[in-house]
Design a protein that fits this description.
Blueprint lengths: L8 E4 L1 H4 L8 H9 L3 E5 H13 L3 H15 L3 E3 L8 H11 L7 E4 L3 H10 L2 E6 L4 E8 L2 E3 L1
Parallel strand pairs: 1-2, 1-4, 2-3, 4-5
Antiparallel strand pairs: 5-6, 6-7
Helix pairs in contact: 3-4, 5-6
């Protein structure tokens, strides 16, 4: 374990949850990087995955259904927001803009480059997939610089 977060809370984005379709056990691999954590997802991310699962018949729809099943199987807690119609990314950003005290409490797991940049600008830690090493890494923004 290379990065220990005290009282770790990880907020999962759809881009990470969709990796379940590729055989990635998100929670187990994150444990290797940050230790024992509690896992959360915003209701708007669940809604986004539900929309994808219903509207896509191919691999993307199957990936979304697997992600929804994974949320239930791994007992990921769903946080209720007022952003049900917003995209998952917008809802995550709004969550931290409206609740700045959560910026130190949560690490956001995402593979979305734009979301990573915006979260780091807000001072939120990010955990992301490092494809070349088949593992997750934590990014932080300290003094305007991204750090691994």
């Amino acid at each position: 374990m290379s990065y220990q977060v005290r009282d770790c809370k990880v907020l999962l984005d759809s881009s990470v949850l969709l990796q379940v379709y590729e055989g990635v056990d998100v929670v187990d691999l994150m444990y290797e990087e940050v230790g024992k954590c509690s896992y959360y997802v915003l209701d708007s991310v669940v809604n986004e995955l539900s929309r994808i699962s219903l509207s896509s018949k191919g691999p993307k729809g199957r990936a979304a259904r697997l992600a929804l099943d994974y949320i239930q199987r791994r007992n990921v807690a769903v946080i209720s927001t007022e952003s049900l119609k917003a995209s998952g990314d917008e809802a995550i950003l709004n969550f931290f803009r409206r609740n700045p005290y959560f910026r130190d409490e949560f690490v956001v797991a995402t593979n979305d480059d734009n979301l990573k940049k915006e979260l780091l600008r807000l001072g939120v830690k990010v955990i992301t997939w490092w494809f070349g090493r088949f593992k997750y890494v934590v990014l932080e923004n300290r003094d305007g610089h991204h750090r691994v």
